[in-house]
Amino acid sequence: MQLIEITLEDENQKEIKKSNINFVDIVLYLIERDKEKSLKLLWSIDPYGLTIFNHFQIEQLVSELEILAQSAPEVKNKIDEVVSLANEVTNHIYLKFIGD
Q1: Helices (H), ranges, the chain
Q2: Which residues contact 71 (CB under 8 A, 6 or more apart)?
Q3: 20 to 30 A Cα–Cα from 78, which one of 6, 12, 23, 45?
Q4: Distance CA 96, CA 1 (A)
């Protein structure tokens, strides 16, 4: 089964917090609901590699997650958890997606 983990990490790549959700569930809704690929940062998440967001990108990422949540109520709770983690990003804390 495909797995995309989400963690918060500091500038030394030390894990601060780890989410219990599998982001793949959200990606499946993204594929189904955003056929025009208008949610650019969400589409940039590599399902088989690492994707890291910094404090400059996080506002746009949260906005895109909230847009997706409006059309995908089935995964809204999972999206809310990702948004909660994203809101902890600062200039020395990063949101990291780890695809497998």
Answers
A1: 24-33, 40-43, 58-71, 76-86
A2: 29, 33
A3: 12
A4: 20
